[in-house]
Amino acid sequence: MEVASVEAIPLRRDLGERFANAQKWIDSREYCLVRIEADDGRVGWGECWGPTAGNRELVEEYVAPFLRGRDPRDVERIHDDLVYELRSSYHSYVPASVVSGVDIALWDLYGKAVGVPVSTLLGGRRRDRVRAYATGHFWGEVEDFEELRTDVVEEAEGHVAAGFDALKNKIGLARHFGWDAEKDVELVRAIREAVGDDVRLMTDANHAYDLADARRVAEELAALDVYFFEEPVPPRNVEHYAALNDAVEVPLAGGECWAFQHEFDRVLDAGAVGYVQPDVTSAGGITSTRRVATMADAANVQCLPHVFGSAVALAASLQVLATIPGGPMLEFDRTPNPIRESLAVDPVTNDGNEVPIPDAPGLGVEIDRDVLAEFRVDV
Ligand code: CA
């Protein structure tokens, strides 16, 4: 079995209303899918994190010639070879998102070739369903804090009504709105009061704070029984994570901005987080995410993958989640997203507070070709 062709497929849909987290306004959904076809006609799908620009050119102009003729079943070796090649070619810039998209597509192809789900290839499924937490609670264009708080609380109540008993919201309002950290805490308090004490509540600052503010906010979050405090400070400050994680009662979470086993080794070695969150589309694919999950297990830290992508990223994350030791949860993005919702022939949906994990060969996702054509921007 050999790789015959490698294609990058850019998808984009502008959103009617933009929304924000602590760092940026999001006005479109944009994905670079990777389609790898083998010489026997089988097709594997992958997905790169981030904008299509850059990912697309690297997949088509750099990776395609590198990959043609290689056996997809050598996926883990190819992952490492590709990282070495990119390191040599680009020095300080190793595009982890490109490695990720290619790696996911190769695992999909491998699973389809041998007729088993990727989770089986990774060593076996520990579960067929996984608890899901509803991610969302982004911020729209609002007149004042009261309007924002009302919107976010209404969204939280909607997720609980849909069966979820675990939610994650966004904090770090200062950059876009100029409101101080007291307002962030007020937002979490409003959600806690609306959904009650039985809902697992998590909060995500997208590295909005300096160390002093992060510590003050963390102490308030602990009083609200917040399950974890995600990305309180910038990802470069691993030592700040470690100091904070030691000092405060609420466990820290983080990982979406780190890639490959060497970065996570530093994070886990420092005791930087209570929960580690590699993303399959940016940490180095299924290969690296599985390695991080194994390293986390050895460090006695729960791995809770970060997930925020199309139907391909969701399917790949579910295959890894089937294999993670302990009690992992799926991060289940509930913000409106036409590409995520319609790209799969059978979209993944929650059944109460859980999501079933597909067991079809490969990633277990079938791409709707008409939908793909509708969102494709290069044809
Ligand atoms: Ca996050």
What is the overall number of helices? 14
Number of domains: 2
Proportion of β residues?
Answer: 15-25%
Rg: 20 Å
CATH level-two architecture of the largest domain: Alpha-Beta Barrel
Indicate the mean pLDDT.
Answer: 97
What is the CATH fold-level name of the largest domain? TIM Barrel
SSE order, as H and E?
Answer: EEEHHHHEHEHHEHEHEHEHEHEHEH
Distance between the termini: 30 Å
Small-molecule binders here are: calcium ion
How would you describe this structure to a colleague?
It is built from 14 helices and twelve strands. By secondary structure, it is an alpha/beta fold. The chain folds into two domains: 3-117 and 369-375, Enolase-like, domain 1; 121-356, Alpha-Beta Barrel (TIM Barrel), CATH 3.20.20.120. The strands form two sheets. Strands 4, 5, 6, 7, 8, 9, 10, 11 and 12 form a nine-stranded mixed sheet that branches. A three-stranded antiparallel sheet has the order 1-2-3, with helices on both faces. The structure holds calcium ion.
List the helices and strands and how they pair.
Blueprint: E1 3-20, E2 25-38, E3 43-48, H1 52-67, H2 75-90, H3 96-114, H4 118-121, E4 129-135, H5 145-161, E5 166-170, H6 174-177, H7 181-195, E6 200-204, H8 211-223, E7 226-230, H9 238-247, E8 252-254, H10 260-270, E9 275-276, H11 285-298, E10 302-303, H12 311-321, E11 329-333, H13 338-342, E12 354-356, H14 369-375
Parallel strand pairs: 4-5, 4-11, 5-6, 6-7, 7-8, 8-9, 9-10
Antiparallel strand pairs: 1-2, 2-3, 4-12
Helix pairs in contact: 2-3, 3-11, 5-7, 7-8, 10-11
Bound molecules: calcium ion.
